[in-house]
Amino acid sequence: MSLPAGLSFSQAPPIQVPLRFFLSAPLFGLLAALLMLGDGPSLMDSRWQPSVLALTHLMTLGFLGMAMVGAMMQLLPVAAGSPVAHPVGVARAVHVLLLPGVLLLAGGFLFGAHWPMRIAMFLLGSGFTVFVAAVGLSLKRASSDNPTVVGMRFAVGALVVTAALGLTLVSNYGWDWWLIERVRLTNLHLTWGLLGWVGLLVVGVSYQVVPMFQLTPSYPKLLTRWLTMALFALLLLLSAVYMLPEGVREPAILAVCLAAATGFMVYAVVTMRLQLQRRRKQSDVTLLFWRFGMVCLLLASALGVAGQVIPVLDKVQGDNFALAFLFVAGFAVSVVNGMLYKIVPFLIWFHLQSLLMGVARVPNMKLIMPEARMRRQMWLHFASVPALVLSAFWPPLIYPAALLFGTSMVLLEVNLLYAFRIYQQNVKLAPKGEPS
Length: 436
Hints:
The protein has a domain at 282-427. Helix content is 79%, strand content 0%. It has helices at residues 16-39, 50-79, 87-111, 114-141, 147-175, 182-214, 221-241, 246-276, 285-309, 311-315, 317-356, 365-368, 371-391, 398-427. Helix 3 packs antiparallel against helix 4 and helix 5 (147-175) packs parallel to helix 7 (221-241). The chain is globular, with a radius of gyration of 21 Å.
């Protein structure tokens, strides 16, 4: 096994830096599934009810947030050549702050209690401040010629806006002060979080990892140079448009949403086209997860545009939930899930390779993360997404959908722990070992 071209692993952080986040992520997905099971069909009554707000943050801040923070801590020194200073201390602080912060925030929403919101506001604000400061300094040192670095910078900028809006809204819930623009600020918070932080980070990182791990040609230079910049500019424009008077606001929002949806659809089509040109014709789990994610991104973009263009659809409550399930579970969770199955076994192989060189044989990546294990979990996830989407229109389907999604999260956690256990067993063979 050789190291992928274009990456520098000499400055890679200790393995516990990303793994603490990766191992936490599926647990939040499982909590989200349990919440769906507990609430049942009533979950679809309104997007503003407490259980929906708790579910949303368990998925976005919990599953996606943990996985994306861990990925950035790993990829900055490797893909950008700019390590985060004191990575172990930063990772420990961010993890210790974010993990209970997400749980308290979800609990505060679910039970309507003020004190968990107040503590969550402090924990999440502190955690994201430490994270943004650490990765911001790292990104400042990194080369601007790297499109992945540019995408990460815009994604972190979107995270700052998302966190600022989110903390404002949490303070409103925690202290019951009067916020006249709560609905508009919530919509902006959601847009910056999903399209900005999640969308821009996936796009930027894919410029590096799709050609590297899926053996595709490189993305077109025109796309890598302008797409993340254009999408970030559209998010800024959308924020300004939201403040316009009511008569002018709707057509302006429509125009900006159409442009943003077009950008994401172009990205999805280009990605799938590159995958068809890959050098290795045999498909693997990561490739299938990404293909599924791109199809869901296309469907979510089309549904979002349809909701803006056709007034009747915009009034349908199920349309909102279907769009959310397509983007979050279908696109974002699928892509992250697929990347975990490449990043985790590769990191374990790489760290064992450096520790056991000349001492013992390092297990192959296929032994660290067996294909059969990954495929079982993958098919469960693939079955859960259409069930979740259809449950938006026929709510009783939420029960089998939640069971499928929850089981897939359990298997994902089991698979990651299986790989980590192999690392722990083999690291004992090293002369001095490595902290784990």
